[in-house]
Amino acid sequence: ETSAERMLGWPTASAVVVASMIGVGVFSTLSFQVHSLNSPFAILLLWLVGAVVALLGALSYAELGAALPRSGGEYHLLGRIFHPSLGFTAGWVSLVAGFAAPIAAAAMAFAAYLGKVLPAIDGHRSWVACVIVSLITLIHAWRIGAGARFQVAATALKIALMLALAVAALFTPAVPGVSFAPAPGDASLIMSSAFAVSMVYVSYAYSGWNAAVYIAGETKDPQRTLP
Questions:
Q1: Do residues 218 and 71 make contact, with C-beta atoms less than 8 angstroms apart?
Q2: For residue range 22-45, what is the model confidence (pLDDT) as tens digits?
Q3: How many CA atoms lie within 13 A of 167 on its CB side?
Q4: How far apart are CA 91 and CA 79, in angstroms?
Q5: Residues with Cβ within 8 Å of residue 14, at least 6 apart in sequence
Q6: Can you name the residues that pair with 8 across neighbouring β-strands?
Q7: How far is 11 from 152, CA to CA, in rounded Å?
């Protein structure tokens, strides 16, 4: 391989991870958790457990990605570590369930939110979602540099909007009667099936913590950048 093939730095790799994690999952799944768990403390514990699981996975991927710095994610890692058939199977699962389905969900959510701003297109959500996916695909397929710049810019905009939302929340009056401290009955909620089902939504929202490993073959100095 030539040095020109490794042209992505840590800002792009970080932007890929941030953009993959912070999105439709954290904004759309919380309502399901609130309906199932009537406890702010239990919901906070959900996200804490999900964070620990994601961190452990990220630490493992950091070591594997540094040792085997090639793009492909689970397809490459499982194929090299265990057997090519496992890598092949994981590749297909990632393609269908890990990428296609979340991309479609994110695009449909984008179209739904855009329809609130532009009511004229609200009745054409599927077409809007298809156009969004196609445009972003063309940007990334055009040139690696163009895709990297788009990724960094879009992620920076996302972070800026979320910071603005957080600042606005500081000036919003607190809702009376809401406490995040443990309360009687929380233990039974944590051991309930509703808590386990809600963990599925949290895991979906946290997915993307391993996104940098998919561009390991195009990342400069992967032994340092990926960890």
A1: yes
A2: 877 787 788 888 888 888 899 999
A3: 6
A4: 10
A5: 212
A6: 219
A7: 7
- Which of 15, 24, 21 lies closest to 155, judged by CA? 15
- Token pair, residue 9, equals 């730095």
Give the ranges where the chain is alpha helix by DSSP (H). Answer: 10-21, 24-28, 30-36, 40-67, 74-81, 84-93, 101-117, 125-142, 144-170, 186-190, 193-206, 222-225
How far apart are the C-alpha atoms of 168 and 166, rounded to whole Å?
Answer: 5
CB-based burial label for 217 (10 Å; 0-12, 13-18, 19+): middle
pLDDT of residue 84: 92
pLDDT for 19 = 85
Report the alpha-carbon distance of residue 151 to residue 155 in Å, rounded.
6
Please enumerate in sequence order all residues whose Cβ is within 8 A of that of 64, keeping only pairs 6 or more positions apart, or say none.
77, 81, 213
| pTM of the predicted model over 0.85 | no
**Straight-line distance from the first to the last Cα atom of the chain, in angstroms, rounded to the nearest whole number:** 22
- Say what the alpha-carbon torsion angle 138, 139, 141, 145 is, to the nearest 10 degrees: 170
